Each structure stands twice: as structure tokens, then as C-alpha cells.
Amino acid sequence: MERSFQTAEELVAAMRAGAVTSVELTDEAIARIERDDEVINAICVPDFDRARAAARHADQARARGEDRPLLGLPVTVKESYNIAGLPTTWGMPPHRNYLPAEDAVQVSRLKATGAVVLGKTNVPLGLQDIQSFNEIYGTTTNPWDRGRTSGGSSGGSAAALASGFGALSIGSDIAGSLRTPAHFCGVYAHKPTLGLVANRGMVPPSQPALPVDLDLAVVGPMARTARDLTLLLDVMAGPDPLTHGVAYDLTLPPARHERLSDFRVLVLDEHPLIATSSAVRACVNRVAAALVDGGARVERHSPLLPDLIEAATLYMQLLISGSVARFPVESLEQLQTRVAGMSADEQSLDAVRLRAMLFDHHDWMEANNRRELHRHGWRQLFAEYDAVVCPITPTPAFPHDHHPNPLERRIDIDGVEYPYFDQLVWAGLATMPGLPATAIPAGQSPEGLPVGVQLIGPMFEDRTPLRLAELLEQTIGGFQRAPLFGTELHTSAKRLHA
């Protein structure tokens, strides 16, 4: 295997052994990006000069006897993180020239452990889509099929990992933004427990980078193996030094079990509000079969599972009301008229989303109180089970869809169309109560597209789904190199340059 596709653990070990230098790894990564990213468009803000300087400093530090967890390792960072001297735009044209003055806390942590930042990865406009395209940087394609999306909003990071552009990346997740791109591109991601990882500096452009506690949203690691996820989570996890970090240190509990045979797992492949494609269902069942073969206790139904319809409703209410608060709707009067004309019997997710756009503080508090009841229900479920296995989205990566009004887009599930944003219900299952969830590759569709599943674990027991991910990787395999990285990709790149 080329070094560009080796794991972070393998590359760090090779540097420790003197088999390769950070400068060599960085030059190889930059060469690959310059050769292949014309087609993929994952790296929207390259920072190669500073990366090469950081690599030289890493090699000098190692020569002095220093050894840090990521010393000399080439990585990428989602565009939405502040990096001093580089633009942070969130894909929004009015902010194309905004340059933050300081690094986000997670960028600082990467650099403190010796990582070499190659550049920033592409995102959708305002991080508000399941795809990654915007007017400033264009469209990120899927390394497995250029006609399909890499996912969003961390789509650039997932495509970069799948393309060999750095060994690790960091992203964020409020609506599956870590997990969906991992699922679409065949890599790994971990949505940490809400509040586990400090998020200061992952903030809309020109807004102050304050140490605030966000609702629903988290930042987290992406990688090509489950063990690399754990490596990066250990770098990222912990409170902000400006707030809780003044008084608290983080110690994550170990995984509940080390052997597959000791795990108790609930497997879900159906949702009452949206169909599951046959390709995704097959991969969920593949994981279930591997669990059974490994001796795990696997069940398909449980009266302890919180109501999935109410969970999806609460998620949409909290997600949309929070989004509107940050990015206000322009036609408020028209929206009020439209909602007022809706029947009280209209309970579709589209209707839930429209009503949530008009939530006041009382409405939000009511939804939040119901969320606490769901969290209690999950605590009861995880007294009986160690993890829940379920889809991330209902389909593999879908074709690019740049319709200007996302509310008019549709998602095709085995020939039946559903509202575009209904596909978020599976991602919301972990997001609404703030649970950790690990996305793992689980197989391929008949068309050869990657398919992932998520492993949802107990709150603040993030090592449990991560350990289960490692065990499943050993059983069913994991990252597979995209077939586009051959003659077809390079021929396409030459055509683009011609």
C-alpha cells in the first residue's frame, strides 16, 4: 500500500522508527493533492508552504528526542474551523475575504501534538446541506463516483481521506455532518457525546470565537480506521481551557467490553417515517450477522427503544429552530401565513420543519423538556444494551442535486421519492439526545458505492462504540481504496487541464 493510504498509527510508527520523515510524507501528500484534487475538489484552501515548514520543524523536534501523538503527521481541517492566516467563509460569498486572527481550539490541539496541517476542506453554504458545494469553492465530488456527492457538511474532509490527502481530518456534526460523508465515501467518523469536545473557533465567519455550549452540534474526528479515530479523539477531547477546563480534567471510561462476544447490541434497519434502501439494509444485516457470528447478543426489537417518530419530530424542532435563530429566514410574514393555513392534522416532517421555523422560547423549552425524557429512556436502554446499530442515511451517496431550494429537492429510495431533509432522521437519532455515534464502512451497494452504518453508544462512554468499531473492522473489513484512483481519474484530470 502507498504511504498516502497508510493509517495514522502506521505513519507515526514509521517516523518514530526513522523509516520516513515528516517532510517526505508531507511532500507525498501535497503531490497527490496537486495531481488528483482537480477532479475531487476536496482541499479548498491549501496551505502547503506552512505545511512544509511545519514538517521540517517536526523532523527537527524528533531529532531532538521529542515524541508527541501526531508529530509530523499530515492532516486536514474542515473549512469552518478558524486557522489564523487562512480564510474562514463557511462557503458564504460575503465572507470570502475573512481571515481570523487565531486558531480554533481544536486546530491548536492538532498543532500542539505535532500534526502538519495541509489545508482546509470544502463545505456547503453555511454548513446547511447534505452535500458540499458553494459559490466560492465549487463542488466536492465523491471519489467513488464523480457524479455523486461526497456528503455534507464535512464532505471535503471525507473525500480527502478517501483520496489519500492526509491521514486524519477534523469535522463537525449537527445533522450527520461527520457520519454521512464517512458513509458516502467509505471512511470512519465519530460524533462525540455532546459537550465532550471543545468547539471554540468552529464559528461562522466574522463572529467572535467564544467558548459557548452549542445545542446539538459537536466537533469530532475522521479517519480511515477505527483505531485512528480513537487516536484523534484523545487529542480532541476535553473541556475548553477558558471554561470547564479551568477546574476539570477529562477521563473517559474504558469501553464496556474488549471482546465481540461480550457485547449486547440492538439492531435497527427500519424507520416508521422513511424507507431504508435495499443496499443500506443489506449492509446493516451484514453487520448484524458478523455480530452474531462473533458471539454477541443481538436483538432486533426492544420496548426500551424511545419512540422513533417522536424522536425525529423533536430532532427536527430543535434543529430547525436553532438554525433559524442563527440564519434568520427572509420571508417571515409569508412563512407565518403558510403555517397558519396548515391543518392541525398535518404532521409530516415537512410540516414539523415549517412550524419549527416560528418557534419561540416557550416552544423550544417544551421540546427540550421532552428531549430530557428521551435521554432518560436511552439511559434505561443502555442498561440493557451496549450499542445500537442502525443506518446513517437511507441510501448510499446520491447524485449531485443543486436545486436552489432544498425544500423542493427529493431523495430517491429504491424508486420512491421522499422530501430531501427527511433522510436526516437516522442521523438525528443520536444527535437529538447527544449520544456518541461511530460511522464505519459496512460494505458496498450493487453499484459499488460505499455503505456505512452507525454504532450509537451510551452518553460519555465514547470508547464503547469506538471499540465495537475496531472489532467489526477486524471482522468485516474497513476502508477500501476508491476505484477512481487509477487510469480513469488521471485521464479525467488531464482532460480538465487540457
From TrEMBL:
Segments traversing the membrane: none
PROSITE patterns: AMIDASES
One Pfam family, short name: Amidase
All copies of domain Amidase, residue ranges: 24-464
Superkingdom of source: Bacteria
Keyword set, alphabetical order: Hydrolase
Record GO terms (molecular function): amidase activity
Family matches, as InterPro entries: Amidase_CS, Amidase_dom, AS_sf, FAAH2
Keyword Hydrolase carried by entry: yes
GO (cellular component) term, any one: endomembrane system
The protein's Enzyme Commission number: 3.5.1.4
Gene3D superfamilies documented for this protein: Amidase signature (AS) domain
Principal EC category: hydrolase
Annotated NCBIfam families: PRK06170.1
Identification of the protein by name: Amidase
Species per Swiss-Prot/TrEMBL record: Solihabitans fulvus
